[in-house]
Each structure stands twice: as C-alpha cells, then as structure tokens.
Amino acid sequence: MTIMRWFKENVWAAAAITLLRIYVGWQWIDAGWHKLSGGFDAGGFLKGAVGKPVADHATNAVLFPNFTYFLEHFALPNVKVINVMIPLGEFLIGLGLILGGLTLTAAFFGMMLNFMFLMAGTVSTNPWLLLLGFIVFTAGANAGRFGIDAYLLPLLRKGWTKLTRKTGTGNGGALNGKVLPH
C-alpha cells in the first residue's frame, strides 16, 4: 500500500487527520467568532495592503499586482460586504472542519483565505494554517471519515448520480442524452 493510499484510506490516518482537522477548525472558528462579535472592519487593513503592497526588497516591484488591483478596485469599494464575508467565512470554515461536514470544501476555502492574507502582506499564523489545511485537504474523503461527511458524501453522490441520469448529462450512465440501463 502506498503512503498516499494509506493516508487517504486508513482508519488510523483518518483518526490523526480528525484531530488535526479539529485543531485547524478551532483556529478558524475562533478567529471568525472574534470578528463577528467584535465589530470587525477590514477598511484599515485593505487600505494598508493597497498603500504598501508586498514588494520585492531589492527592486520595490509589487509582487502581486493583480491582487493589489483586486483589493483596490473591488474589496475596498465593497468593504461592507467584505466585513461580513471574512468573519462569516472564517466561522463557517471552522465549523465545517470541526464537524467534518464538507471538509474538503472548508479546507479549500481556508487555504484560499490564507493565501489572500499572505498576498496582502499578513504573515501571522497563515503559513502554519496553510500547511495544516493542505494536509487535511490532501487526505481527501478520509479527512471527514469521522464527521458529518461520513453520512453526507454518500447522499451527495447518490443525488448527483440521480441528477445526471435524469438530465442525460455527465457520465452518470448517459450516452448522447439517452440513459443506459445498469
């Protein structure tokens, strides 16, 4: 058995990933809760990230110009939306990881937020959470084995199969719009 197969299928690996998943989830839910309950305002942070973007020390060239453009032209004008999305997103990422519900989705969006915070110039715990999130994400479905995903993923697969068979799309047993017998 290869290491990756063991990591993605073994019950002991799932137990270890569950502990890691709960730890990372707690970090996210805690950060989100503090922002939700503490009057979070991303305006100052966004202005700082635009005013002093991450730059090369030797040339002062902006390293992530597209991201800086996004912050300046989308995030700042919509800071009221950002003020809701960031804390709510962090809280939901944490909830998903702790409960093991939509675990891979939660880990993916956690990593995306970590990357965005890093590109805005905030190091803090982001590299650590990014690494741990990557480990959880790499475990695949095994990351949610001891959580809601154990019940949710089979239901989602069944629903997806039903949907693709009815509409004649995807590879759920359809060929040229006709459902094939199984």
UniProtKB/TrEMBL annotation:
GO terms for cellular component: membrane. The chain crosses the membrane at residues 91-116, 128-148. It comes from the Bacteria. It holds the Pfam family DoxX. InterPro entries: DoxX. It is a multi-pass membrane protein. Keywords: Membrane, Transmembrane, Transmembrane helix. The keyword Transmembrane applies. It is found in: Membrane. This is DoxX family membrane protein. The lineage of its organism: Bacteria, Bacillati, Bacillota, Bacilli, Bacillales.
